[in-house]
Amino acid sequence: MGSDSDMKVMKSCIEQLGDFGIEPVVRIISAHRTPEIAADFAENAAENGIKVIIAAAGMAAHLAGAMASKVTLPVIGVPLDSGAGLNGMDALLSTVQ
What are the pLDDT digits (tens) for 60-80? Predict the structure, then answer.
């Protein structure tokens, strides 16, 4: 997640993964505020047993792209409404780009 405010949306995703017996690795990492941490997380994901990255972010939603640029693992981008008045359309367009 790009911000701790994203947890309220992603909580149900985390719970669903748990229902399927999948123990997710949950981190709050910003592609903008902490790009080095984001790159390090992505570059070491496979080595740490991660098989898929789910990257949720609002506004510019660069997190999924930042992760995907560093790995060959599947990356699922989840665009979130940041409350900036665009109802998440900004994040959606950035994610699908």
Answer: 778 899 999 999 999 998 888
Residues pairing with 57 in the sheet: 79
Contact between residue 27 and residue 42 where contact means Cβ atoms under 8 Å apart: no
For residue 54, give the CATH number of its domain: 3.40.50.1970
Cα torsion 58, 61, 64, 68 to 10°: value is 180
- Structurally, the chain folds into a number of domains equal to 1
Q: Of 23-32, 61-70, 86-95, give the lowest mean pLDDT range.
A: 86-95
Tens of pLDDT along 48-62?
999 999 998 877 778
CA–CA separation, 46 vs 30, rounded Å?
Answer: 20
Strands (E), 43-90: 53-58, 75-80
